[in-house]
Amino acid sequence: MVEFRGFRVAAITAVSLFALASGAHAQVTLNVVTAGDQNMVDYVIDFLGPKFEAKNPGVKVRAIGTGPGDAGSQAVFEKLKAQKSQASWDVDVAVVHQFISGPMLKEDLLAKYTGQIASGALATRDSAKNALGANVEGYVIPMFNSQVAVAYNPDMVKEPPTTYQQLAEWAKANPKKFGYNGIKGGMSGVGFVTGWMYAFAPSGLAITTGYDANAKAGWKDALASLKDFNKNATITPGNAGTLDMLGRGEIAMGPVWVDMFYSWMADGKLNPNTKLVLLGPGMPGQPMYYTLPAKATHKDLALKFIDFAASPEIQAEGIVKRFNWYPGIDAQHVQKALDQKTWNKLFTDVTPADLATKGKTFPVAAHLKEIQESYEASVTQ
Question: Which of 258, 311, 369 is nearest to 117 (CA)?
Fold first, then answer.
């Protein structure tokens, strides 16, 4: 399984944190178990938990971190699977990476819940329904959507391409001014390559919904055109490397994670005029999910917590303002809860309509692996 880009490294192990969950003193303790790095735990401890507790006297929200990356989500999976035969489980809400939600559903570890809360109707993007080919509709609400887009310097790019086909033509006319990290050093490059396959391979976006053993056989021309494209591209050292070269004017365009882009902008590392564009037919992103374990001890309270966490006001203040992430619910629902400056920063270049039509998921896990292997074999050689 490919390892997705994580957060800061968590300081407490999964075992010790699960042990801490038994030490609650409040009338009711809601255990929120989250994969990801320490900022995911801190978000619940410092922001989400206190706000929920204020609205629900007698409730204590306990954040339990399982660690960064795929391993953190795998730890949640193993914890729930180990309790499968028990009448109730000590995990009330689980926040996990996209890749593990399909296996969790297959093992009957999740409850279908989104139709029972108001916020469930506010998340309609592909990422709320499809998790690397697994149909998770009804079982998840994205906590946030982290998106790959193309950043460009408008001083160097007067008419930015809006599709992969236009980009291919632009790169020929402007050699070495587009840069990306291939498939090494970060998922922004993998996201760009995946979008290329969506645009030029006969299988197109079908590889996001199911595995087709015959799809790979039709990728030859798309990979050949990408190899030709690379002759006019600059290969960067990684996610940060693309942003660094963009900031120094060594390249004019390149794929980036949107949240990283805005962090670099805020730190003054990029030309303040730098903009974003989401290429058609689409570029992938990755969410983390709020899920409801099938035998959560405090199911009703867990539903209330997820509904609160996914509400427009909390998504606006916690997800958009604090982290520069796109909201897990559809963007138009948070607009009224955001000041105009924040809204314009995040949604002027890439609009909610762009996200709805061109914000795609990564493909089925097996196809994603095949894309990376095919790139190594056919594009880098």
Answer: 311
